[in-house]
TrEMBL record:
It comes from Roridomyces roridus. It comes from the Eukaryota. Residues 17-44 form a coiled coil. This is F-box domain-containing protein. Keywords: Coiled coil.
Length: 138
């Protein structure tokens, strides 16, 4: 039976450690280069301003008004066409939608077993509608 020479095995392992360490160093350098490139790309993206976000809030608010059915028609109860849909696009649109009372002046409500939730939703819409005339469909 042949037994490997322990001295030769240790020497081979030491040589292999040097090779592996060199490969790890090369990969770390490549990772660093990619991270630097990623940061550079992200910085350029962060400075980009989408054209729609350069519009004055008043114009965006007016566009939002055309997203809904004309007052006093109430928007559908679910899905697209609700002012809440506009609040899910981005932070800027959320702020504009929440600051536009006319978006919240018409709403439909249906009977639900959860009266507390129904009341909370109605109070939220009423608060957001400000002093606008209301159209409530039950």
């Amino acid at each position: 039976m042949n037994h490997p020479d322990p001295k030769a095995a240790r020497a081979a392992d030491r040589a292999r450690v040097v090779v592996i360490d060199a490969k790890i160093h090369q990969l770390e350098q490549r990772i660093h280069a990619l991270q630097t490139e990623l940061e550079s790309c992200q910085e350029r993206l962060d400075t980009y301003k989408y054209p729609v976000l350069t519009l004055p809030n008043e114009i965006v608010s007016e566009i939002f008004m055309h997203f809904l059915p004309p007052y006093p028609t109430c928007p559908r109860l679910a899905g697209l066409g609700l002012p809440t849909s506009l609040t899910h696009i981005c932070r800027e649109w959320r702020e504009i939608a929440l600051a536009t009372p006319k978006l919240w002046q018409a709403f439909c409500t249906v009977y639900t077993a959860n009266k507390a939730e129904q009341t909370r939703v109605m109070e939220t819409w009423l608060d957001r509608s400000g002093s606008c005339p209301l159209s409530i469909q039950m």
